[in-house]
Write a structure and sequence with these properties.
164 residues, three-stranded antiparallel β-sheet, mainly alpha, 57% helix
Length: 164
């Protein structure tokens, strides 16, 4: 059976979903294997995704792109269906949400450190904005960035003083 054109159906094929979410069909299949998403299938085996699947996949991708471990995403996504009652679900889900909050706080702190380092690196590197020399030790032996590169990790990464 041939599917109608995309604009005439309320479901997406895997390639369409991947394109809409800025990912790959391979990623979507991996998430399916992990139980994070469960598409319907046609008789011919074509995966079809409903709006609820798109929303679920979007949050999975968001968490993964932010650096959350897939095993933690998987625990969140699958815990409810293992419960026999609402009370049991609450008792199992709330601690996972607390863990998520802790991960968010930790990630935020790390990002704030990187942001502060970025600001220091930017200030340091801007000192060379009017310098006519090539940015290396040989062509600019008095380079202020080279002299103060250890004040910021990003400057160390960008402006490695070991270059000649």
């Amino acid at each position: 059976m041939r599917l109608p054109p995309r604009d005439q159906r309320d479901m997406l094929k895997i390639g369409e979903l991947a394109e809409d979410l800025g990912t790959t069909p391979r990623t979507i299949r991996l998430y399916e294997e992990l139980g994070l998403i469960a598409p319907e299938r046609t008789r011919g085996g074509t995966r079809l995704y409903r709006k609820k699947d798109v929303k679920r996949m979007a949050i999975v991708l968001r968490l993964a792109r932010l650096g959350m471990e897939l095993s933690d995403v998987q625990r969140l996504a699958c815990v409810r269906e293992q419960c026999g009652s609402g009370a049991e679900a609450v008792s199992k889900v709330l601690p996972l949400l607390d863990e998520l909050r802790g991960w968010i706080d930790s990630t935020r702190s790390e990002l704030e450190l990187v942001e502060r380092d970025l600001e220091r690196a930017e200030m340091l590197i801007r000192q060379c904005s009017r310098c006519p020399n090539r940015p290396n030790r040989r062509d600019c032996p008095q380079c202020p960035v080279d002299r103060d590169v250890d004040l910021t990790d990003l400057a160390r990464l960008i402006w490695d003083p070991t270059s000649p």
